[in-house]
Amino acid sequence: MPFDIAALLTHLDLELLEVNIFRGASQDIGSGRVYGGQVLAQALVAAGRTVEPGRLAHSLHSYFILPGDHHAPIVYFVERLRDGKSFTTRRVTAIQHGRAIFEMSASFQVTEPGIEHQMGLPDVPPPEELVSDIERMRAQLDRLPERVRTFYTRERPFDWRSVDPGDPLQPTPRAARRYAWFRAAAPLGSDDPLLHQGVLAYASDYGLLGTAMLPHALTFTTPGLQAATLDHAMWFHRPFRADEWLLYATESPSASGARGFTRASVFTRDGRLVASAVQEGLIRVH
After folding, report:
1. What is the H or E stretch that residue 37 is in?
2. 279 is a catalytic site residue
3. Is residue 39 within 8 Å of 101, Cβ to Cβ?
4. Residue 38, C-beta contacts closer than 8 angstroms, at least 6 positions apart
5. Exposure of 241 by Cβ count < 10 A (0-12 exposed, 13-18 middle, 19+ buried)?
6. Rounded Cα gap, residues 7 and 239, in angstroms
7. What is the layout of strands, in order, in the sheet containing 21-24?
């Protein structure tokens, strides 16, 4: 079935099983396993549901331990590590089939003023001048291998528009840097900051590891490629809406030891830096 923004919001509306225990449904996005961004987003929502109002997530640090089974729900256990005057700390463990598949620590803070500075918005074309990624891939459906057609062409919760997409079927070595605009494919219908943070967390795992493959002319269609997220961290700097255009600026400073290291900055259209992400992933070519 199509996995649109309405389906994503349903997946983020976790079921409360008991105090500090939540359950979330899983969705196959075409990769045959649970998408890492889904687990990240659900864990963040689970942690946020145990935090008193007025405290927003400012950072999270996570490890992906085992691949998830998209045929089964995931249970999230939240540990209340600290409830201070300004900061709240939570630890979340995601369980499937009796085993931990994911661990995350998240910190929440009351809103308070302070010093401010930030890096500038990269000089890239606006989203209106770019073709959506899904339209571009559907236009060359006959070139896509059967095994990846669903993954690249099915309905998605986001409208992604890459600045310089390249050709995933005939890649050439290029700098380990990529820019893409994205937003939720429809209005979220809520001003809840936790929901918008969860939606951004979901999107943050999309394409980040692929940036480390650019200098080596590798893509997820490369035969024999094994790629998986190992860890993922995020920082939320300023308020934002995930249903308005955001620029995802990613780069990979290093790859070694069968691992690729990537980092990203998220900007609003008016140039505010609202979030940062860092990820390391497994990259093997058999």
Report:
1. helix 36-48
2. yes
3. yes
4. 11, 24, 26, 27, 202
5. buried
6. 24
7. 15-18, 21-24, 74-83, 87-96, 99-110, 55-64, 225-236, 273-285, 259-268, 246-256, 177-184, 158-162
Residue entry with tokens 């993922």:
232
Q: Which residue, among 279, 174, 177, 167, has the nearest Cα to 222 in the 3D structure?
A: 167
Which is catalytic among the residues 229, 243, 250, 262? Answer: 229
**What whole-number percentage of the chain has pLDDT above 70?**
94
- On the question of pLDDT at 251 being above 80, the answer is yes
Residue 28 phi, psi dihedral angles, 5° rounding: -85, 115
Tokens representing residue 27 in the block:
């969705």
Residue-by-residue DSSP string for 135-174: HHHHTTGGGS-HHHHHHHHS--SEEEEESS---SSS----
Strands 225-236 and 273-285: antiparallel
CA 261/CA 233 separation, integer angstroms: 12
Among the listed residues 205, 219, 250, 262, the single catalytic one is 205
Q: Is 118 a catalytic residue?
A: no
State the amino acid at position 104 in one-letter form: M
Q: How many residues comprise the chain?
A: 286
Q: Is 229 a catalytic residue?
A: yes
Which structure tokens are listed for 90? Answer: 């939570």
Q: At residue 1, does pLDDT exceed 60?
A: no
pLDDT (tens digit per residue) in 53-88: 999 999 999 999 999 998 999 999 999 999 999 999
CA–centroid distance for 241 within its chain: 15
- The residue whose two tokens read 């820019």 is 179
